[in-house]
């Protein structure tokens, strides 16, 4: 609304206490909004992770001890987000758990609790978390696995020790042995065929179960760089 000429001519009314409070209140509200926006990335991701069921299965900080569940902490944010979406939309399916349901099923069933933006915030937060300490297993099997990893050219896509993948591909360093073995077998058999998995399927078609197991032992012992 424009000020009328009449108002412009009149002497300005002195500020009452109520006016001052209103001004202070507006300033405080603006400051709170600015603070909220600045901290949104960090706080929201963590809050959302804790309140949108993820923590129940993936544990505090994305590193629960269940061996067939992946360590999420320190994985690439884009990869994390893509996999969440693929599981939510049923594009990524796994083999059965002990009760005969796909291991991805229970997660798929709850993914409607979070919006796309919320999943992105969770992915960004998870990517920034320190990876869990590596598990050092049997030295002879690890050496055997390192050799098979190198002979199978896994490093061409996933990098040395699985820690420095090509752009868009997952870090596999410091991943749980059982989870790694399941993924190798299910990508090889075509059960998991989401995203770019087909690219890997062609390369590992002739990998023996024994080599796959040794590689899984090896990858569970390699160090994941924080924040990749
Ligand atoms: C009921 C248990 C359960 C819940 C709840 C759950 N997940 Fe999962 N999630 C799993 C399992 C099991 C897998 C591995 C599936 C497989 O073996 O292929 C998985 C896989 C993933 C992956 C793929 C990791 C990779 O390395 O490819 C991401 C990312 C993920 N979950 C994020 C989340 C987020 C974020 C939430 C919360 C919105 C969530 N999950 C809720 C059980 C769960
Ligand atoms: C041509 C590139 C390529 C090669 C070679 C390759 N991979 Fe992969 N791998 C991928 C891609 C891409 C994905 C992710 C697929 C997706 O979800 O989009 C993947 C996924 C994985 C996963 C699952 C990661 C997770 O968090 O769920 C594991 C484990 C893995 N690869 C191990 C291996 C091993 C071991 C070898 C060697 C025997 C290998 N890969 C060779 C491209 C490759």
The low-pLDDT segments are 1-11, 19-40
Bound molecules: heme C
CATH topology: Cytochrome Bc1 Complex, Chain D, domain 2
- The number of E-state strands comes to 0
Specify the CATH class: Mainly Alpha
Question: Major β-sheet, in short?
Answer: none
Distance between the termini: 53 Å
Provide the succession of SSEs. HHHHHHHHHHH
CATH architecture type: Orthogonal Bundle
Overall mean pLDDT score? 85
Our Rg estimate from Cα atoms comes to 25 Å
Provide the helix percentage: 40-55%
In terms of DSSP E residues, the strand content is: under 5%
Task: Describe the protein in words.
54% of the residues lie in helices and 0% in strands. 29% of the residues are buried. The longest helix is centred in the first third of the chain and has 35 residues, at 17-51. It has helices at residues 5-9, 17-51, 54-58, 77-88, 105-110, 116-127, 139-151, 155-158, 177-189, 197-204, 209-219. The chain has a single domain (54-219), classed as Cytochrome Bc1 Complex, Chain D, domain 2 (Orthogonal Bundle). α4 (77-88) packs across α6 (116-127) and α9 (177-189) packs across α10 (197-204). With 228 residues, it is mainly alpha-helical. The chain has eleven helices and no strands. The structure holds heme C (2 copies). One heme C (HEC) binds next to α8, α9 and α10. One heme C binds next to α3, α4 and α5.
């Amino acid at each position: 609304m424009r000020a009328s000429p009449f108002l412009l001519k009149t002497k300005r009314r002195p500020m009452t206490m109520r006016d001052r409070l209103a001004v202070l209140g507006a300033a405080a509200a603006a400051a709170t909004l600015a603070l909220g926006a600045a901290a949104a990335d960090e706080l929201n991701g963590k809050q959302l992770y804790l309140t949108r069921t993820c923590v129940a299965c993936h544990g505090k900080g994305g590193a629960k001890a269940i061996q067939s569940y992946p360590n999420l902490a320190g994985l690439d944010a884009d990869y994390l987000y893509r996999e969440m979406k693929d599981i939510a939309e049923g594009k990524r399916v796994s083999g059965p758990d002990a009760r005969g349901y796909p291991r991805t099923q229970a997660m798929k069933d709850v993914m409607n609790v979070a919006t796309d933006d919320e999943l992105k915030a969770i992915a960004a937060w998870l990517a920034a978390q320190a990876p869990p300490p590596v598990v050092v297993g049997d030295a002879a099997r690890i050496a055997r696995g390192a050799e098979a990893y190198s002979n199978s050219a896994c490093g061409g896509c996933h990098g040395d020790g699985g820690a420095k993948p090509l752009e868009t591909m997952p870090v596999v360093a410091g991943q749980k042995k059982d989870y790694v073995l399941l993924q190798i077998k299910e990508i090889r058999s075509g059960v998991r065929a989401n995203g770019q998995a087909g690219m890997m399927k062609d390369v590992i078609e002739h990998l023996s179960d024994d080599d796959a197991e040794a590689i899984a032992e090896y990858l569970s012992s390699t160090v994941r760089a924080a924040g990749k």
